[in-house]
Design a protein that fits this description.
By secondary structure, the chain is α/β, with parallel strands linked by helices. The chain has one domain: Spore Coat Polysaccharide Biosynthesis Protein SpsA, Chain A (Alpha-Beta Complex), CATH 3.90.550. It contains eight helices and nine strands. The strands form two sheets. Strands 3-2-1-4-8 form a five-stranded mixed sheet. Strand 6 and strand 7 form a beta hairpin. Helix 6 packs parallel to helix 8. The longest helix has 15 residues. The chain starts with a strand and ends with a helix.
Length: 212
């Protein structure tokens, strides 16, 4: 039986999302072997009660551009076959991990619920991920641990897009999930709602040029 780890970052003003997130993880049909969150939250009792195996780790370093880069520290503490980076403001659905064991892929592209819209995963190839003008893989999609070992998350806005590009460059195989697997949160504090679009587009161009 392959093991599955769920990781997240919960810092700054994201503390209120921790308990709903933990409740959602606790409701999974297939239970993760490890759950690791890098957090500076002080009110964690309810999350710990909902998820007794929750490993909360204080951040030990700063970041230059985007706190999600701290997820590398959570993954370093999680020694499972599969990694699922489920952002702390998103809610995973109970069935989401049901098909991971011995799945013949390296990245299982999750479908998401985005407000009123259900967005199924796209069937993509590494080539499409490398050269598409926009991100084709949703952030919470699980992947085999070697994918992260071959290329960690970068300290940049939209670090997940860069991560999938690195994965494709390292010959990872992508496959779509057949279900809608988590609810994508929509709120005013999201980096994606407040970022400098030109900045992250330039970063992605730099990554693609480096890989060319």
């Amino acid at each position: 039986m392959e093991t599955i780890g769920i990781v997240a970052v919960c810092v700054n003003d994201y503390g209120p999302f921790l308990t709903p997130w933990a409740n959602a993880v606790a409701s999974l049909t297939v239970k993760p072997s490890q759950v690791t969150v890098i957090t500076d939250a002080t009110d964690t009792a309810a999350a710990r009660e909902a998820l007794p195996n929750l490993n909360l780790i204080q951040p030990t370093r700063t970041w230059q551009h985007h706190p999600q880069v701290l997820v590398n520290d959570a993954i370093a503490e999680t020694s499972t076959d599969w990694i699922c980076k489920m952002d702390i403001d998103d809610l995973i659905y109970p069935h989401a991990l049901n098909h991971l064991n011995n799945h013949p892929t390296d990245v299982l592209c999750f479908g998401i619920q985005h407000g009123e819209r259900s967005l199924p995963a796209r069937p993509v190839t590494g080539g499409l991920v490398l050269f598409a003008p926009h991100n084709l893989v949703n952030s919470g999609s699980p992947y085999r641990r070697w994918v992260w070992e071959a290329g960690h998350y970068r300290d940049m806005i939209f670090e997940d897009w860069a991560f999938w590009i690195d994965a494709a460059a390292n010959a990872a195989k992508f496959a779509p999930s057949s279900t809608i697997d988590y609810e994508y949160a929509i709120h005013g504090s999201q980096v994606s709602e407040n970022c400098d679009t030109a900045l992250w587009e330039q970063r992605i161009k730099e990554i693609k040029c480096a890989l060319a």
